[in-house]
Amino acid sequence: QVQLVESGGGAVQAGESLRLSCKASGNFRSINVMGWYRQAPGDSHDLVAHITSDGNTHYADSVKDRFTISRDSANYTVYLQMERLKPEDTAVYFCAAEGVRRWGGNGLYAYWGQGTQVTVYS
Length: 122
Prior knowledge:
The chain is mainly beta and 122 residues long. Helices cover 0% and strands 60% of the residues. The chain contains no helices and 11 strands. It starts with a strand and ends with a strand.
């Protein structure tokens, strides 16, 4: 099994910043993609940003130029630096690990964290 533990959520005023962290641990030998999704009440589960093992990044249009994703591959940790937060960024943010190879097998798996709440007040 693979566990993803998120931290760094909270409540801030519009225009402020937050940094989310997510560390993967457990029975795996590699992770291809790590990223963040978010879900606001009544909304779908949407990709915020992801980063591949070789450092390629992708961002949702709504967060480009405000959010930065980075990765410490040696420690299987992914970060999301969120700047100039807006009330519409309010959501539960979920860490994801995709293309996970476990020891003792050839399959690829995906795992999710439990989510961390981000609330932005206007």
